[in-house]
Amino acid sequence: MAETTVGDIMHKGVIACKPDTPLQEVVRIVADTDVHAIIVVDSQGEVRGIISHFDLIKCYGTDLHDRKAQDIMTPQVIDVAPTVPVSEAVKIMIERDIHRLLVTEMTPSGKRPVGVLSTTDVVKQMRGARWVWYMG
Amino acid sequence: MSKFVRDVMSRSVITCTPDTPLVEAARRMTDNQINALVVLDEDGEICGLVSRTDLVRVYNQDYAGMTVEDVMTPHVTTVIPDIPVAAAAQLMLDNKVDRLVIVHPRPATQRPVGVLSLSDIVREMARA
What we know:
Order of helices and strands of chain B: HEHEEHEHEEH
CATH topology of chain A: CBS-domain
Number of domains of chain B: 1
CATH superfamily of chain A: CBS-domain
Radius of gyration of chain A: 16 Å
Oligomer: heterodimer
CATH architecture of chain A: Roll
CATH class of chain B: Alpha Beta
């Protein structure tokens, strides 16, 4: 049985904003889409950072006007290729103590985001897939 | 106007017990689209928290025979419903926790009445 890869179970597509997206708009996108993090991508499609719930709640009760995504984003984004086995991706998540990995593909114009692998996707795999496999 | 935890917390608390099989915990989280379960002892009081991250930590092990007790976090940060959301947010940042379990001050028990997650606070920010 071939090992499950990141590409098999990831969320396809990413919810993204621009570095200069107003913070109030970022909060609205995250709340409306129920994602736990938003990717910050520049006009060339290059990934510039990530904004998590933690980054956002640091701003709770402060004035969000005149502040932009780039002011609060975490510039280091850990990424993996869709061909990486899930078992390897999980090791990276545990070692780095992170809840999600950005999935990127190399294109002629550079690395492009194609999806996100989160703990949600991994837990879905754990909800009994192995029981089915034992029965089969 | 400053909001209180009771105004934004989620009142439905999805729970399990220490002997719940891990696979069943994964199913409960997925079915209810939540990130953690509150673990209750036989008296219905909080004895731990099990999150998606706790489950992912054993993904590469033979987890089929494991129970919640094997992976849960026994330290749970609890607060009462009557503190400001700003104070709760600061507590989550300071303690690096993704959620707080809400308990009633009187009578002082460790029975959960709600959960406040990072998502609840972000949704509140979007409404402001």
